[in-house]
Write a structure and sequence with these properties.
The chain is mainly α and 275 residues long. The protein has 15 helices and no strands. It folds into 3 domains: 68 residues, Serine Threonine Protein Phosphatase 5, Tetratricopeptide repeat (Alpha Horseshoe); 103 residues, Tetratricopeptide repeat domain (Serine Threonine Protein Phosphatase 5, Tetratricopeptide repeat), CATH 1.25.40; 72 residues, Tetratricopeptide repeat domain (Serine Threonine Protein Phosphatase 5, Tetratricopeptide repeat). Helices cover 81% and strands 0% of the residues.
Length: 275
């Protein structure tokens, strides 16, 4: 009888272990495919069996973040770190979420922990630089962004943020160089075109600004903020009909812009009639 029970138990055990691994793999595949709900489902089932898997907690944390449940995401990232305090990926993921939540000091602390574990983690330098930018610590931001670039010269966002900081510090030449480099590295960096356009607009180089905004349109065609910025540029160039069209389009895309643009639209309608 004991032999029979052993015979029944061993195949069941093997079958259970096989399914557990499948749950992890299905969860991983769902997360990679940005199917956050399925990822949470599979990884939760997996973690109900493997309660100390720090990698699975970090993955489920990213799934929760993708689904917009930031509180549970933070909980999972913290659980992953509690299980393995040397798991740099969990610190990095939690730090990036802290940036979303505008908790920049917490973000910087997490990126510092990543860099203690892996001193050449280029993304940690990038994200720390971005965090420092948001708290106006520009010198530390430039230092970290430069470290990210030295390790990984393909980081378009590192050049973009450093360019913005240089402009804020009055170094226009270096600002343009970095924004140009950001676009060279990534031709689809929408924000770099927007920033370069804004820089030209502030400098009253409206034709150049318009060119940048039109390039941004080739990447994203339905961003209301882009219509607003281009609208102001058209207005500065005295192309009032085009400006009015852009402002009206921004309102249609997002009605929260309508009250902000109401006076601009009325003014443009008067200018068009007078011409």
């Amino acid at each position: 009888m004991k032999k029979l029970l052993l015979f029944i138990f061993i195949p069941q055990l093997l079958f259970s272990q096989y399914n557990t691994q499948e749950l992890f793999l299905y969860g991983e595949a769902a997360l990679n495919g940005k199917d956050c709900k399925s990822a949470i489902k599979y990884l939760s089932e997996y973690l109900s069996i493997n309660t100390n898997d720090n990698i699975a907690f970090e993955m489920r944390g990213r799934a929760y973040e993708l689904c917009g449940d930031y509180e549970k995401a933070l909980g999972d990232f913290s659980n992953s770190i509690f299980i393995n305090s040397r798991y740099d990926k969990a610190f990095l993921s939690r730090g990036k979420l802290y940036i979303k939540l505008k908790e920049y000091d917490n973000a910087i602390a997490d990126f510092n922990n990543v860099l203690i574990i892996n001193p050449r983690d280029s993304e940690a330098y990038l994200q720390k630089g971005i965090s420092c930018y948001h708290i106006d610590n520009f010198s530390l931001a430039i230092s970290n962004l430069s470290n990210a670039i030295n390790i990984a010269p393909y980081y378009s966002e590192a050049y973009r943020y450093r360019g913005i900081i240089y402009y804020k510090l009055g170094n226009k030449e270096e600002a343009i160089k970095d924004l140009n480099r950001a676009i060279e590295v990534d031709k689809n960096n929408y924000n770099a075109y927007m920033d370069r356009g804004s820089l030209f607009f502030i400098e009253e180089k409206y034709t150049e600004a318009l060119k940048e905004y039109n390039l941004a349109f080739s990447i994203k065609e339905t961003e209301p903020d882009l219509f607003v910025r281009r609208g102001y540029t058209y207005k500065a160039l005295e192309k009032y009909s085009q400006a009015l069209t852009d402002f009206n389009t921004a309102c249609k895309l997002d009605n929260s812009y309508c009250s902000y643009l109401e006076n601009e639209i009325k003014q443009l309608e008067i200018l068009i009639k007078s011409n």
